[in-house]
Design goal:
Number of helices: 9
Oligomer: single chain
CATH superfamily of the largest domain: Translation initiation factor eif-2b, domain 2
Helix content: 40-55%
Shape: elongated
Largest sheet: 5 strands, parallel
Radius of gyration: 19 Å
Strand order of the largest sheet: 6-5-4-7-10
Structural class: alpha/beta
Number of strands: 11
Length: 281
C-alpha cells in the first residue's frame, strides 16, 4: 500500500489519501493550510489514531509556515492557536500528543523564527517516520503469537490507511504474510455505521493479495462458534495506563465473544496511542 499521508518537500505541502472516497475512487488532498488539515481530521478524510497524529504534527508545521512570524513569541502564539484548531477529534489521544510534542519542540528550540519553523517541519516528518518504524516492529513482535496458517479476525480499519504506512493490525498481518509466504487469512467485520472494515480493510488487504473474507458484524459469533478463526487482532483509539482500550463500537462485543469461545484477543498499538494521564473510570 501507498503512504496515507506525507510531507512534500518541494512545495512544503501535505498530501493525504481522501478515505471518504475509497474504495471506488483513489484520490489525494494536497494542502498548505493547517485549517484544511483540521477539517480532514474532523470529517474523517483521514482517520485512524496514528494517522491522525501524523496529520496533526504536519498541521502544526503548516501553521508555523503560515504564521510568517518574525519572533519566537509570535510563532508560539500562532502554534498554540493552531493546536486548538486541530483538536477536532477527541477520541484519538495521538492528536493532542502530536500537537503537544510540536509545541514542546518550538518552546525548547533556539534560534530565530525561520530556524524554529525548519525544526518543526523536521519534527513533523519524524513523527511520521517513527510511526512507520513502530508499525513494522509491532508486526515483527506479533510473529511470536501469529503462526503459519492462522486466520485472524479484525474489526474497523487498523491497517495502512489508519497509520502512515503498514498499519498496526495491518503490520501484524502483512509481516506474517511476508514471513509465511502468504499462508495467512483474514476475516474483516464490516464495522457499522461507517463501514471501515468493508470499505477500507477489505480493500487494502485485497490490494496486497492477502486472503480476506468480509463478514457482517452480526456474523462474528457464528464464525467463532464454528472455529473459523485462530485469534483476534484489533487496534485502539486510546489505551489507558491501566490497559483499558477504547476502540470502535463492536470491539467490546468481539472481545466478550472471543473470551467465551477461548479465542486469543490481541490489541496492536504504538506507544503514541497510550494515554498516561486520563483516569479510565
Amino acid at each position: 500500500m501507498y503512504r496515507t499521508i506525507e510531507w512534500l518537500d518541494d512545495t512544503n505541502e501535505v498530501r493525504l489519501v481522501d478515505q471518504t472516497k475509497l474504495p471506488l475512487v483513489t484520490s489525494h488532498i494536497v494542502t498548505s493550510s493547517h485549517e484544511r488539515i483540521a477539517r480532514t481530521i474532523k470529517i474523517m478524510e483521514i482517520r485512524g489514531a496514528p494517522a491522525i497524529g501524523a496529520a496533526a504534527g504536519m498541521g502544526m508545521a503548516l501553521a508555523a509556515i503560515e504564521s510568517k512570524a518574525r519572533t519566537k513569541d509570535e510563532l508560539l502564539d500562532s502554534l498554540e492557536k493552531a493546536a486548538v484548531t486541530l483538536n477536532t477529534r477527541p477520541t484519538a489521544v495521538n492528536l493532542t500528543w502530536a500537537t503537544a510534542r510540536m509545541l514542546d519542540v518550538a518552546r525548547g528550540a533556539e534560534g530565530d523564527a525561520d530556524t524554529i519553523v525548519r525544526k518543526l517541519i523536521d519534527e513533523a516528518k519524524e513523527i511520521a517516520e517513527e510511526d512507520v518504524r513502530m508499525c513494522r516492529k509491532i508486526g515483527e513482535n506479533a510473529l511470536a503469537y501469529i503462526k503459519p496458517g492462522f486466520t485472524i479476525q479484525t474489526i474497523c480499519n487498523a491497517g495502512s490507511l489508519a497509520t502512515v504506512h503498514l498499519g498496526t493490525v495491518g503490520a501484524v498481518i502483512r509481516v506474517a504474510h511476508e514471513k509465511y509466504n502468504g499462508d495467512i487469512k483474514v476475516y474483516a467485520a464490516e464495522t457499522r455505521p461507517r463501514q471501515q472494515g468493508a470499505r477500507l480493510t477489505t480493500y487494502e488487504f485485497m490490494e496486497d493479495g492477502i486472503d480476506t473474507t468480509l463478514i457482517t458484524d452480526g456474523m462474528i459469533g457464528t464464525v467463532f462458534k464454528e472455529g473459523r478463526v485462530d485469534c483476534c487482532v484489533v487496534g485502539s483509539d486510546r489505551t489507558f495506563r491501566t490497559g483499558h482500550v477504547t476502540n470502535k463500537i463492536g470491539t467490546y462485543t468481539m472481545a466478550i465473544t472471543a473470551k467465551y469461545h477461548n479465542i486469543p484477543f490481541y490489541v496492536a498499538i504504538p506507544m503514541s496511542t497510550i494515554d498516561w494521564e486520563t483516569d479510565p473510570e
